[in-house]
Structures are given as structure tokens and as C-alpha cells.
Design brief:
Layout (H helix, E strand, L loop, with lengths): L6 H12 L3 H11 L6 H8 L10 H8 L3 H6 L13 E6 L4 E10 L13 E5 L12 E4 L14 E6 L4 E8 L6 E4 L6 E4 L1 E11 L2
Parallel strand pairs: 1-3
Antiparallel strand pairs: 1-2, 2-6, 3-4, 4-9, 5-6, 5-9, 6-7, 7-8
Length: about 210
């Protein structure tokens, strides 16, 4: 059992309850706060060196679904202060390419999948994504550098080296560092270098 008698311990407990690791919490807090939050900032709080990270505590509390009073001083029961929000970042069109917005839009009334805070969301545009339909939403994880092992063989949103962001099933390429991108509606792209890959968490009609 995790004791919650310090700020660091309460944040560790809230992270466990929310199912968030340090990079995921940093990304969610960056979206919900007024300035970027780094993984180093999260680590500073968890290690008790929170003086320089104090300005981020409100955003961290929001991302974790607890009040700032509970996170900082243990006041209250650590109940959620706000509903988790999903962020619409672009539309998926022909060839499974995602057209990104300049800024994401919070989707009012759309809750993310359980245990996920502020995921990225792309909306299907047009009828080229069969069996997906126009207007359906695709929820996916954080856009961190690199390709995690659990992305292999899964439907993912990926960014290739030329900058295109795509919805594809990810397979290993012919050698290390290269990947094959499979699609429902287009020939596979072989031996592609990726900047990052994020697993699709949920697909749902809107």
C-alpha cells in the first residue's frame, strides 16, 4: 500500500490510480496547464525536489484528476475536480493520413477511455477508411519519440521521417530501425523510418 503523507507519495498514488507513467503525466499536464511540463519536472516532484516544479502543481493535479489542495497538502479525499478531456488534433483522410490542426480542440462531452487522461483524438474524414465511417473518433496515446515494443503488430498512429502522420498497422521492417506500415485501403509501405508511434486506444462512433 502506498502511504500518502507527503506530496511525492500522494502524486505517486494518484499516478498509480490514473494508470499514468511520468512521460504520460507530463504530456497531459502540458495540455491542461498554461506552460509545458517536462518529465524532469514530474521526477522532481516524485523525488521531493519540488521547489522548481511548484508552478506546475495545479496542472499536474488536473491531469491526475485530483484537487491541488489534496496533492499539495492532503486536504480532502483526492476526488476528481474536473472531467478528463479528449483533444481533437486532426482528421484522418484518404490513405490514412492525418491532417493536423494548428492547435488541438477540447472535445466537449467526449470522455476518453477509462484510465486515460487527455488522449489525442483524430476524426475520420470522408469514406475512404472502410470499415471506419466518417465522423468516427480514433483515440491514441502520447506522441513520444521512438517506437515502443508494444506497438508492433498493433494499429497505431505514426509519424514518418518525412513528417506525415498516418494511421497504420505497424510491423517490423527488413532491418533494425525500419518498419512496415499496413493499411486497410492502400498498399503497404515497406522499410519506413519513424519518428514516433502511438497505439490506438479506442475507436468509437461519434
Amino acid at each position: 500500500m502506498i502511504m500518502s503523507n507527503t506530496l511525492a507519495a500522494r502524486m505517486a498514488l494518484a499516478m498509480k490510480r490514473a494508470g499514468l507513467n511520468q512521460p504520460q503525466l507530463a504530456e497531459a499536464a502540458s495540455r491542461l496547464g498554461s506552460q509545458p511540463v517536462s518529465q524532469q519536472n514530474v521526477q522532481q516532484v516524485l523525488s521531493g525536489r519540488n521547489k522548481t516544479a511548484g508552478k506546475h502543481l495545479s496542472a499536474l493535479a488536473d491531469a491526475l484528476g485530483v484537487t491541488t489542495d489534496w496533492l499539495v497538502a492532503g486536504k480532502g479525499g483526492g476526488k476528481p475536480r474536473r472531467r478528463a478531456e479528449a483533444l481533437l488534433v486532426g482528421t484522418v483522410g484518404a490513405g490514412s493520413e492525418i491532417t493536423r490542426f494548428d492547435e488541438g480542440n477540447v472535445l466537449a462531452g467526449v470522455e476518453p477511455p477509462p484510465g486515460v487522461v487527455a488522449p489525442n483524438v483524430a476524426e475520420i474524414s470522408g469514406d475512404s477508411q472502410y470499415p471506419l465511417q466518417e465522423g468516427w473518433l480514433i483515440f491514441y496515446g502520447p506522441e513520444h519519440q521512438g517506437v515502443a515494443e508494444d506497438c508492433i503488430g498493433k494499429l497505431c498512429v505514426v509519424q514518418v521521417k518525412d513528417g506525415a502522420t498516418l494511421l497504420k498497422t505497424l510491423k517490423r521492417g527488413s532491418r533494425k530501425g525500419l518498419f512496415s506500415l499496413e493499411s486497410w485501403n492502400a498498399p503497404p509501405r515497406e522499410d519506413v523510418r519513424l519518428v514516433w508511434a502511438a497505439r490506438v486506444i479506442d475507436i468509437r462512433p461519434r
